[in-house]
Amino acid sequence: MVKTSRLFQMQMRFDGLLGFPGGLVKPSEESLEAGLSRELQEEMGASVSVTVNDYVSSHLAQSPPRLILHFYSKKITEAELLEIERAAVSTAVDHGFEVLGLTRVPLYTLRNGGGLPWFLSHSFISNSRAQLLEALQRLGLVSPPNLEEAVKKAEEMRHTVKSDPSHRQYLC
Ligand SMILES: O=c1[nH]cnc2c1ncn2[C@@H]1O[C@H](COP(=O)(O)OP(=O)(O)O)[C@@H](O)[C@H]1O
Hints:
Blueprint: E1 9-13, E2 18-19, H1 32-44, E3 55-60, E4 68-72, H2 78-90, E5 99-104, H3 116-120, H4 128-138, H5 144-163, H6 165-171
Antiparallel strand pairs: 1-2, 1-5, 3-4
Bound molecules: inosine-5'-diphosphate.
Inosine-5'-diphosphate (IDP) is lined by residues 19-20, 22-24, 61, 64, 67, 69, 98, 125-128, 131.
EC number: 3.6.1.64
Cofactor: Co(2+)
Subcellular location: Nucleus, Nucleolus; Nucleus, Nucleoplasm
C-alpha cells in the first residue's frame, strides 16, 4: 500500500468507463459553474461550489456533435475529500445509477509498473484521460518526467493485456 499526501478523484460511470463528475448544462438556463455545482451535488451528494477560478480548459467533443467539454478542477482539503467520499455512497441521488463509485487516482508508479500506469491503461469517456493528464501536470501532482514515463508504461500495458494468452481464453 502506498500512502500519498495528495489525493485526486475520478469516478466509475454507469457504462463502465472512468470519467469526471459533471453533466450537461444549458448555458441559456444557468451558468456553467452553477450547472456543474448542481451536477456535483447529484453525483457526489456533497455541496461543492465551483467558481470561474477553478476553470481549466475547453474542448470540442468528437461525439456527440456541437458539445463543448468544459473542464474545472478544484483544490479541497483531505477532510473535505473524505466527507465527499462518505456522501457519495450515502446521500448522492445518482449513486448506483449514473455513478457506480468515486475512485482515487493512484499518483505513484510501483516498481512493477502498477499504480498510475495501470490506471491510465483503463478505458475513459471522451477526452477525460487527456483532462486527467492535464490536471495532474497543471496542479503539479506528478512531475513531467514521471507522467511521461507512466503514459509510456500504460501504452505497453495495453499491448501486454491484448497479447496475454489468458486474455484470449476469457474471450472464447
Ligand atoms: O469526464 C468527462 N470528460 C469529458 N467529457 C465527458 C465526461 N463525462 C461525460 N463527457 C461527455 O459528455 C457527454 C454526456 O455525458 P453524460 O451522458 O454522462 O451526461 P449526463 O450526466 O448529463 O447524462 C458524453 O457523451 C461525453 O461526450
